[in-house]
Design a protein that fits this description.
Layout lengths: L6 E5 L4 H12 L3 E6 L2 H15 L4 E5 L5 H15 L4 E4 L9 H23 L8 E6 L12 H24 L3 E8 L5 H4 L12 H8 L6 H13 L7 E5 L2 E4 L8
Parallel strand pairs: 1-2, 1-4, 2-3, 4-5, 5-6, 6-7
Antiparallel strand pairs: 7-8
């Protein structure tokens, strides 16, 4: 998929991985709608991007992925402004084991909610143009992070949802590819506070630090993986593991194929 003129929606777009995703999509000539609950950071980023790319290339909308009403309004505004949606980067997420219900609500329920609402505009069966949806999972979605059981569960759920949706889309003729991005630890604000957000598993901080010491990604490395999943039209139902200096597509056992 060539990105020139394509319309992308990015959740959690104001900072960290979402910001890097936004920037790499713009660099490849897409138009990007930035959705984030952090209005201050979102408006600040929008101003910076306007100077570099022009006001007409981006749109910032304050949006909480826990709110169906806000998501519906944001997607409606996207289509009214740009004429459609070709790419969804379902990126918003948190890590806080002391707030496990909120972690599930944002990391998994929110991802499903945004995906289903975006399908109404993207699905070829309902008049959409098709496209690609990339969901930000984690290395913790491929194997357990012992100090973060709930975060691990949500990211496993994201990968399972991605793969099932990819198969359902292919079988149904939605015209939409689904892929999951699975980075190891990434240098972001979320990462910098990880040892303070382990809740009842704070006694496992040292074990977590041992994993961190094996290598941390910068956000641009993650964004490059995202770009590959978006542009390579052979990729559907994939989970791309991103480690320092290495990317690898996961191989899963097949039961229902």
């Amino acid at each position: 998929m060539a990105l020139n003129g394509r319309i992308a929606v990015v959740t959690g777009a104001a900072m960290g991985i979402g910001k890097a995703i936004t920037e790499i999509l713009l660099q490849n000539r897409a138009k990007v709608v930035l959705l984030d609950v952090n209005e201050t950071a979102g408006k600040s980023l929008k101003e910076a991007l306007d100077k570099q790319y022009g006001q007409e290339r981006t749109l910032f909308l304050n949006c909480d992925v826990e709110s169906e009403e806000q998501i519906k309004a944001a997607l409606k505004k996207t289509v009214e402004t740009f004429g459609g949606i070709d790419i969804l980067c379902n990126n918003a997420g948190i890590l806080d084991e002391s707030k496990w219900e909120k972690t599930v609500s944002i990391n998994l329920t929110g991802v499903i909610r945004v995906t289903y609402l975006a399908l109404e505009y993207m699905n070829k069966l309902t008049g959409g143009r098709g496209g690609v949806i990339v969901l930000t999972a984690s290395l913790a979605g491929l194997g357990p992070l012992l100090s973060c059981p709930v975060y691990t569960a949500t990211k496993h759920g994201v990968i399972g949802f991605t793969r099932a949706m990819a198969a359902a889309s292919s079988a149904s003729g939605y015209g939409i590819r689904f892929n999951a991005l699975c980075p190891t630890f990434v240098q972001t604000d979320l990462f910098s506070a990880i040892l303070d957000r382990l809740g009842q598993f704070s006694h496992l901080a040292d074990a977590t630090q041992q994993f961190v010491d094996k290598g941390v990604l910068n956000v641009s490395e993650v964004a490059e993986g995202l770009l590959e999943l978006v542009t390579d039209e052979t990729k559907n139902g994939e989970a791309l593991m991103v480690l320092p200096n290495m990317k690898n597509y996961m191989t899963f056992p097949t039961f229902f194929q």
